Amino acid sequence: MTSTVKAHLALIVSGILFGANYWVAKGLMPGYMLPMQIIFVRGLASLILFWIVASFISDQKIPRKDHVLLALCGLFGIAINQAFFFIGLNLTSPVDTALIHSGSPVIVLIFSAWLAGEKTGQSKIMGIALGAVGAVLLVLQGNLSSGGGSHLLGNSLIFLNIVSYSLYLVLIKPLMARYNAFTIMKWVFLYGFIFVLPFCVTSVQTINFPAFNAYAWFALVYIVIGTTFITYLLTTISLKTVSAGIAGYYIYMQPVIAALIGIVLFNERLTSAKMVAATLVFAGVYLVNRKKEFKRGA
Protein backbone atom coordinates (compact mmCIF):
# COMPACT_ATOMS: atom_id res chain seq x y z
CA MET A 1 0.00 0.00 0.00
CA THR A 2 1.49 3.33 -1.06
CA SER A 3 1.83 6.33 1.25
CA THR A 4 -0.75 8.19 -0.86
CA VAL A 5 -3.34 5.45 -0.41
CA LYS A 6 -2.63 5.38 3.33
CA ALA A 7 -3.08 9.15 3.51
CA HIS A 8 -6.46 8.98 1.82
CA LEU A 9 -7.59 6.10 4.03
CA ALA A 10 -6.60 8.18 7.06
CA LEU A 11 -8.68 11.10 5.78
CA ILE A 12 -11.65 8.83 5.07
CA VAL A 13 -11.58 7.46 8.63
CA SER A 14 -11.33 11.02 9.97
CA GLY A 15 -14.30 12.05 7.83
CA ILE A 16 -16.38 9.16 9.17
CA LEU A 17 -15.56 10.00 12.79
CA PHE A 18 -16.22 13.72 12.30
CA GLY A 19 -19.47 13.02 10.43
CA ALA A 20 -20.89 11.03 13.33
CA ASN A 21 -19.89 13.81 15.70
CA TYR A 22 -22.76 16.03 14.47
CA TRP A 23 -25.14 13.66 16.22
CA VAL A 24 -22.96 12.65 19.16
CA ALA A 25 -21.85 16.11 20.33
CA LYS A 26 -25.31 17.66 19.98
CA GLY A 27 -26.74 14.92 22.21
CA LEU A 28 -24.29 15.81 24.97
CA MET A 29 -25.14 19.52 25.10
CA PRO A 30 -26.50 21.22 27.08
CA GLY A 31 -28.18 18.52 29.15
CA TYR A 32 -24.98 16.90 30.41
CA MET A 33 -22.15 19.30 29.65
CA LEU A 34 -21.64 22.89 28.56
CA PRO A 35 -19.33 23.67 25.62
CA MET A 36 -16.37 24.89 27.69
CA GLN A 37 -16.65 21.85 29.95
CA ILE A 38 -16.36 19.55 26.94
CA ILE A 39 -13.42 21.54 25.62
CA PHE A 40 -11.58 21.28 28.95
CA VAL A 41 -12.06 17.51 29.30
CA ARG A 42 -11.37 16.94 25.61
CA GLY A 43 -8.23 19.05 25.62
CA LEU A 44 -6.77 17.71 28.86
CA ALA A 45 -7.43 14.04 28.09
CA SER A 46 -6.04 14.32 24.55
CA LEU A 47 -3.01 16.26 25.78
CA ILE A 48 -2.18 13.50 28.28
CA LEU A 49 -2.66 10.78 25.65
CA PHE A 50 -0.40 12.47 23.10
CA TRP A 51 2.39 13.13 25.63
CA ILE A 52 2.28 9.54 26.92
CA VAL A 53 2.41 8.00 23.44
CA ALA A 54 5.06 10.46 22.23
CA SER A 55 7.31 9.59 25.18
CA PHE A 56 7.53 6.01 23.90
CA ILE A 57 7.92 6.86 20.22
CA SER A 58 10.11 9.91 19.80
CA ASP A 59 11.90 12.70 21.63
CA GLN A 60 12.58 15.12 18.78
CA LYS A 61 14.05 18.50 19.65
CA ILE A 62 12.24 21.50 18.20
CA PRO A 63 13.91 24.90 17.65
CA ARG A 64 12.30 28.05 19.03
CA LYS A 65 11.12 29.32 15.63
CA ASP A 66 9.06 26.18 15.09
CA HIS A 67 7.53 26.52 18.55
CA VAL A 68 6.02 29.79 17.34
CA LEU A 69 4.36 27.93 14.47
CA LEU A 70 3.25 25.14 16.82
CA ALA A 71 1.70 27.74 19.13
CA LEU A 72 -0.20 29.24 16.18
CA CYS A 73 -1.43 25.75 15.26
CA GLY A 74 -2.56 25.28 18.85
CA LEU A 75 -4.38 28.62 18.78
CA PHE A 76 -6.19 28.08 15.46
CA GLY A 77 -6.49 24.29 15.36
CA ILE A 78 -7.37 23.62 19.00
CA ALA A 79 -8.39 26.72 20.98
CA ILE A 80 -10.41 28.79 18.51
CA ASN A 81 -11.54 25.86 16.37
CA GLN A 82 -12.89 23.71 19.19
CA ALA A 83 -14.29 26.52 21.34
CA PHE A 84 -16.23 28.10 18.49
CA PHE A 85 -17.45 24.70 17.23
CA PHE A 86 -18.97 23.55 20.51
CA ILE A 87 -20.31 26.97 21.53
CA GLY A 88 -21.72 27.48 18.03
CA LEU A 89 -23.26 24.00 17.82
CA ASN A 90 -24.89 24.56 21.22
CA LEU A 91 -26.60 27.68 19.82
CA THR A 92 -27.52 26.45 16.36
CA SER A 93 -28.48 23.18 14.69
CA PRO A 94 -26.41 20.38 13.15
CA VAL A 95 -28.03 21.29 9.81
CA ASP A 96 -26.56 24.78 9.82
CA THR A 97 -23.26 23.47 11.18
CA ALA A 98 -22.88 20.91 8.39
CA LEU A 99 -23.95 23.47 5.80
CA ILE A 100 -21.37 26.05 6.91
CA HIS A 101 -18.66 23.36 7.09
CA SER A 102 -19.31 22.68 3.41
CA GLY A 103 -17.39 25.86 2.64
CA SER A 104 -14.21 24.66 4.30
CA PRO A 105 -12.43 23.23 1.22
CA VAL A 106 -12.80 26.58 -0.55
CA ILE A 107 -11.33 28.38 2.47
CA VAL A 108 -8.45 25.88 2.65
CA LEU A 109 -7.83 26.43 -1.06
CA ILE A 110 -7.61 30.20 -0.53
CA PHE A 111 -5.22 29.87 2.42
CA SER A 112 -3.12 27.29 0.55
CA ALA A 113 -2.69 29.56 -2.45
CA TRP A 114 -2.08 32.66 -0.33
CA LEU A 115 0.24 31.30 2.38
CA ALA A 116 1.77 28.19 0.84
CA GLY A 117 1.75 29.04 -2.86
CA GLU A 118 -0.09 25.81 -3.63
CA LYS A 119 -1.09 25.55 -7.29
CA THR A 120 -4.70 24.82 -8.11
CA GLY A 121 -5.64 23.19 -11.40
CA GLN A 122 -9.00 23.21 -13.14
CA SER A 123 -9.69 19.63 -12.11
CA LYS A 124 -9.32 20.44 -8.43
CA ILE A 125 -11.49 23.57 -8.72
CA MET A 126 -14.19 21.58 -10.51
CA GLY A 127 -14.00 18.82 -7.90
CA ILE A 128 -14.40 21.30 -5.05
CA ALA A 129 -17.34 22.93 -6.82
CA LEU A 130 -19.06 19.54 -7.34
CA GLY A 131 -18.42 18.59 -3.73
CA ALA A 132 -19.84 21.89 -2.51
CA VAL A 133 -23.05 21.42 -4.49
CA GLY A 134 -23.38 17.82 -3.30
CA ALA A 135 -22.70 18.65 0.34
CA VAL A 136 -25.15 21.58 0.42
CA LEU A 137 -27.83 19.53 -1.34
CA LEU A 138 -27.31 16.65 1.07
CA VAL A 139 -27.51 18.84 4.15
CA LEU A 140 -30.69 20.55 2.95
CA GLN A 141 -32.30 17.15 2.27
CA GLY A 142 -31.48 15.84 5.73
CA ASN A 143 -33.16 16.13 9.11
CA LEU A 144 -30.22 16.66 11.40
CA SER A 145 -31.76 19.28 13.65
CA SER A 146 -32.20 18.41 17.29
CA GLY A 147 -33.04 21.39 19.39
CA GLY A 148 -30.92 24.07 17.78
CA GLY A 149 -32.33 27.48 17.10
CA SER A 150 -30.17 28.35 14.08
CA HIS A 151 -29.24 31.61 15.77
CA LEU A 152 -27.07 34.12 13.95
CA LEU A 153 -24.46 34.05 16.71
CA GLY A 154 -24.17 30.26 16.57
CA ASN A 155 -23.81 30.26 12.80
CA SER A 156 -21.22 33.04 12.96
CA LEU A 157 -19.16 31.07 15.47
CA ILE A 158 -19.36 27.94 13.31
CA PHE A 159 -18.10 29.96 10.35
CA LEU A 160 -15.16 31.26 12.40
CA ASN A 161 -14.56 27.70 13.60
CA ILE A 162 -14.15 26.39 10.07
CA VAL A 163 -12.01 29.37 8.98
CA SER A 164 -9.73 28.69 11.94
CA TYR A 165 -9.47 24.96 11.19
CA SER A 166 -8.80 25.64 7.50
CA LEU A 167 -5.93 27.96 8.43
CA TYR A 168 -4.64 25.29 10.84
CA LEU A 169 -4.44 22.71 8.03
CA VAL A 170 -2.24 25.04 5.98
CA LEU A 171 -0.03 26.10 8.91
CA ILE A 172 0.69 22.58 10.13
CA LYS A 173 1.56 21.16 6.69
CA PRO A 174 5.25 22.30 6.62
CA LEU A 175 5.87 20.89 10.12
CA MET A 176 5.12 17.38 8.86
CA ALA A 177 8.24 17.55 6.66
CA ARG A 178 10.44 17.93 9.76
CA TYR A 179 8.80 16.06 12.64
CA ASN A 180 6.68 13.00 13.32
CA ALA A 181 2.98 13.32 14.01
CA PHE A 182 3.12 12.58 17.75
CA THR A 183 5.80 15.20 18.35
CA ILE A 184 3.68 17.78 16.56
CA MET A 185 0.43 16.81 18.25
CA LYS A 186 1.81 16.83 21.80
CA TRP A 187 2.99 20.42 21.40
CA VAL A 188 -0.04 21.63 19.45
CA PHE A 189 -2.39 20.29 22.13
CA LEU A 190 -0.23 21.71 24.92
CA TYR A 191 -0.36 25.21 23.45
CA GLY A 192 -4.05 24.83 22.58
CA PHE A 193 -4.91 23.76 26.12
CA ILE A 194 -2.97 26.70 27.59
CA PHE A 195 -4.95 29.10 25.37
CA VAL A 196 -8.39 27.73 26.39
CA LEU A 197 -7.67 27.02 30.07
CA PRO A 198 -8.51 30.53 31.39
CA PHE A 199 -11.95 30.30 29.75
CA CYS A 200 -12.72 26.84 31.18
CA VAL A 201 -11.73 27.20 34.84
CA THR A 202 -15.10 28.46 36.09
CA SER A 203 -17.41 26.12 34.18
CA VAL A 204 -15.35 22.96 34.73
CA GLN A 205 -16.02 23.14 38.48
CA THR A 206 -19.73 22.50 37.89
CA ILE A 207 -19.46 19.29 35.80
CA ASN A 208 -21.90 16.78 37.28
CA PHE A 209 -20.35 13.44 36.35
CA PRO A 210 -22.65 11.42 38.70
CA ALA A 211 -25.61 12.53 36.55
CA PHE A 212 -24.13 10.96 33.41
CA ASN A 213 -25.97 8.04 31.88
CA ALA A 214 -24.44 5.46 29.53
CA TYR A 215 -24.97 7.65 26.46
CA ALA A 216 -23.31 10.68 28.04
CA TRP A 217 -20.22 8.64 28.91
CA PHE A 218 -20.14 7.14 25.41
CA ALA A 219 -20.47 10.59 23.83
CA LEU A 220 -17.66 12.05 25.96
CA VAL A 221 -15.31 9.14 25.25
CA TYR A 222 -16.17 9.34 21.56
CA ILE A 223 -15.37 13.06 21.45
CA VAL A 224 -12.05 12.60 23.30
CA ILE A 225 -10.80 9.46 21.55
CA GLY A 226 -12.66 9.45 18.24
CA THR A 227 -12.95 13.08 17.14
CA THR A 228 -9.85 14.37 18.88
CA PHE A 229 -7.02 11.92 19.47
CA ILE A 230 -7.61 9.71 16.41
CA THR A 231 -8.85 12.31 13.91
CA TYR A 232 -6.21 14.94 14.63
CA LEU A 233 -3.50 12.29 14.46
CA LEU A 234 -4.75 10.80 11.19
CA THR A 235 -5.19 14.20 9.57
CA THR A 236 -1.68 15.24 10.60
CA ILE A 237 -0.18 12.00 9.28
CA SER A 238 -1.99 12.44 5.95
CA LEU A 239 -0.48 15.92 5.52
CA LYS A 240 2.95 14.33 5.21
CA THR A 241 1.80 13.02 1.82
CA VAL A 242 -1.10 15.11 0.49
CA SER A 243 -1.69 18.85 0.29
CA ALA A 244 -3.73 20.86 2.77
CA GLY A 245 -6.28 21.49 0.02
CA ILE A 246 -6.89 17.78 -0.51
CA ALA A 247 -7.07 17.15 3.23
CA GLY A 248 -9.61 19.95 3.53
CA TYR A 249 -11.74 18.47 0.76
CA TYR A 250 -12.58 15.44 2.88
CA ILE A 251 -14.72 17.66 5.10
CA TYR A 252 -17.34 17.10 2.39
CA MET A 253 -17.56 13.52 3.66
CA GLN A 254 -19.03 14.70 6.95
CA PRO A 255 -22.55 15.52 5.70
CA VAL A 256 -22.55 12.23 3.76
CA ILE A 257 -21.73 10.25 6.91
CA ALA A 258 -24.21 12.26 8.99
CA ALA A 259 -26.94 11.55 6.42
CA LEU A 260 -26.11 7.82 6.35
CA ILE A 261 -26.35 7.67 10.15
CA GLY A 262 -29.73 9.41 9.93
CA ILE A 263 -30.95 6.82 7.40
CA VAL A 264 -29.67 3.80 9.34
CA LEU A 265 -30.35 4.85 12.93
CA PHE A 266 -32.98 7.60 12.80
CA ASN A 267 -35.31 6.36 10.05
CA GLU A 268 -34.53 9.08 7.55
CA ARG A 269 -35.59 8.32 3.99
CA LEU A 270 -33.07 7.46 1.27
CA THR A 271 -34.24 9.77 -1.51
CA SER A 272 -33.03 10.23 -5.06
CA ALA A 273 -31.83 13.72 -4.13
CA LYS A 274 -29.58 12.27 -1.42
CA MET A 275 -28.19 9.72 -3.86
CA VAL A 276 -27.44 12.46 -6.41
CA ALA A 277 -25.81 14.58 -3.70
CA ALA A 278 -23.58 11.72 -2.54
CA THR A 279 -22.63 10.98 -6.14
CA LEU A 280 -21.56 14.61 -6.63
CA VAL A 281 -19.40 14.48 -3.50
CA PHE A 282 -17.60 11.33 -4.59
CA ALA A 283 -17.24 12.59 -8.15
CA GLY A 284 -15.57 15.62 -6.62
CA VAL A 285 -13.24 13.33 -4.67
CA TYR A 286 -12.16 11.74 -7.95
CA LEU A 287 -11.52 15.08 -9.65
CA VAL A 288 -9.62 16.55 -6.71
CA ASN A 289 -7.40 13.49 -6.50
CA ARG A 290 -6.58 13.01 -10.17
CA LYS A 291 -2.94 12.07 -10.61
CA LYS A 292 -1.94 15.28 -12.38
CA GLU A 293 -3.20 17.25 -9.39
CA PHE A 294 -0.87 15.32 -7.11
CA LYS A 295 2.06 16.20 -9.34
CA ARG A 296 1.22 19.87 -9.03
CA GLY A 297 0.27 20.49 -5.42
CA ALA A 298 0.48 17.43 -3.22
Uncertain residue segments: 143-150, 293-298
Number of helices: 13
**Termini Cα gap:** 18 Å
Main beta sheet strand tally, sense and closure: none
C-alpha geometry: globular
Averaged pLDDT: 81
Radius of gyration: 18 Å
Q: State the share of residues found in helices, binned by percent.
A: over 70%
Task: Count the beta strands.
Answer: 0
Number of domains: 1
The H/E string reads HHHHHHHHHHHHH
Helix/strand-derived category reads mainly alpha
User: Which percent range describes the beta-strand content?
Assistant: under 5%
Compact overview of the structure:
With 298 residues, this protein is mainly alpha-helical. It has one domain (3-297).
Characterize the structure shown.
By secondary structure, the chain is mainly α. It has one domain (3-297). Helices cover 78% and strands 0% of the residues. The protein contains 13 helices and no strands. Helix 2 packs antiparallel against helix 3 (64-91) and helix 2 (35-57) packs across helix 9 (214-238). The model is unreliable at 143-150 and 293-298 (pLDDT under 50).
Throw out a few tags for this protein:
single chain; 298 residues; mainly alpha; 13 helices; 78% helix; disordered C terminus
Layout of helices and strands, plus pairs?
Blueprint: H1 3-28, H2 35-57, H3 64-91, H4 94-101, H5 104-116, H6 122-141, H7 152-172, H8 181-204, H9 214-238, H10 244-249, H11 253-265, H12 272-288, H13 291-297
